[in-house]
Amino acid sequence: PVGICQLLETTLLCIVNFASLVATNAARMRLAVGPNKTLLEFGLRRSQGPDGGVSASRYSYVGGFDGTSNALAGMLFGMKVGGTHAHSFVQSFSSLEDLPSRDIELPDGSMVDF
């Protein structure tokens, strides 16, 4: 029984330690900025493991963040997604002339030529 307990202990600690680390840090950041600031999590590209990004997004949300840059986590957990774009898509254009349109629609519906 001791061997089984040791194996279970390691697994449980790995699961709980990461979750509590991320959620606790998110809660500390929420307390530091207050309730009126928007906090978004951007850790997808730096996370560890096959589901590390989704897990970190979820734990940040549990800790008080408002949303994530991780579209999958947003879909799975109903989180607000925002604050980022595909850098590889941007780099696929070599100049502004390559863009199909130079217009950007602002939140109020007006258009701006950048």
Helix percent reads: 40-55%
User: Gyration radius, to the nearest Å?
Assistant: 20 Å
Structural class call reads mainly alpha
Please state the average pLDDT score: 90
Order of helices and strands: HEHEHEHEE
Number of strands: 5
Strand percentage lies at 5-15%
Extract low-pLDDT stretches.
Answer: none
Number of helices in the DSSP assignment: 4
Task: Please summarize the sheet with the most strands.
Answer: 3 strands, parallel
Q: How are the strands of the biggest sheet laid out side by side?
A: 1-2-3
- Alpha-carbon distance between the two ends: 67 Å
Query: Globular, elongated, flat, extended or rod-shaped: what is the shape?
Result: elongated
What's the short version?
This protein is 48% helix and 11% strand. By secondary structure, the protein is mainly alpha-helical. Helix 1 packs across helix 2 and helix 2 crosses helix 3 (71-77).
Explained architecture:
The protein has 114 residues and is mainly alpha-helical. Helices cover 48% and strands 11% of the residues. It has helices spanning 2-33, 52-62, 71-77, 87-91, and strands at residues 40-41, 67-68, 80-81, 103-105, 111-113. A 3-stranded parallel sheet has the order 1-2-3. Strands 4-5 form a two-stranded antiparallel sheet. Helix 1 (2-33) packs across helix 2 (52-62). It is elongated and about 70 Å long. The protein starts with a helix and ends with a strand.
